[in-house]
Design a protein that fits this description.
By secondary structure, the chain is mainly alpha-helical. It is built from seven helices and no strands.
Length: about 180
């Protein structure tokens, strides 16, 4: 029971103290899951995060579910999932009750504008951190550039881009092994 509470509490902390969605949560996720609790390695977190992007739903919730399942099976998945959404549900309920009264205030509009800027920086920081671990050679760099171009300039689903990148990684890895044999 203690481990289930730890899963719930860890993901509730992450969900309650980070803003901007899955990418902005990645640094805190890595700190909590990899460094503090050692529930997963950095590579495993990146893998869970990638899978979380491909599956329906919220990236952070999906990632929490995978990590919880790895730790304590179905009960761990439930604890981590509930922990990940609990703060958001509470915050949204409070904001929804109060926002109608304050949404038109200039101060509130400026605050949201400032929050959007900071969230953009947090996302950029997470991307730069991922780049160091993920782009390890020229081929990975080319896959990253192609994925960025497809995402930014073409109307292609992110799930399709991830699947195509995975297929490219498999084919390239297989080709390298054949050359070495």
């Amino acid at each position: 029971m203690k481990e289930l509470w730890e899963l719930f509490a860890a993901f509730a902390r992450i969900g309650g103290f980070t803003f901007g969605g899955g990418y902005a949560m990645l640094p805190m996720l890595q700190k909590e899951v990899v460094e503090k609790h050692q529930w997963a390695t950095e590579d495993e977190v990146l893998d869970y995060f990638a899978i979380g992007q491909c599956t329906p739903g919220i990236i952070f919730v999906n990632t929490a579910t995978f990590i919880g399942y790895k730790q304590k099976g179905v009960a761990g998945a439930v604890a981590a999932t509930i922990g990940s959404v609990f703060p958001s549900v509470c915050i949204v309920m409070v904001i929804a009750a109060m926002l109608q009264n304050f949404a038109e205030l200039t101060l509130v509009q400026h605050a949201f504008a400032g929050i959007r800027v900071v969230v953009s920086v947090l996302i950029l920081n997470a991307v730069l951190g991922l780049r160091k671990k993920s782009i390890v050679d020229k081929i990975c760099g080319l896959i990253a550039i192609a994925a960025f171009a497809a995402s930014a300039f073409l109307d292609i689903s992110p799930a399709v881009i991830v699947v195509l990148a995975a297929v490219a990684g498999i084919l390239i890895s297989g080709g390298r092994r054949r050359k070495q044999s």
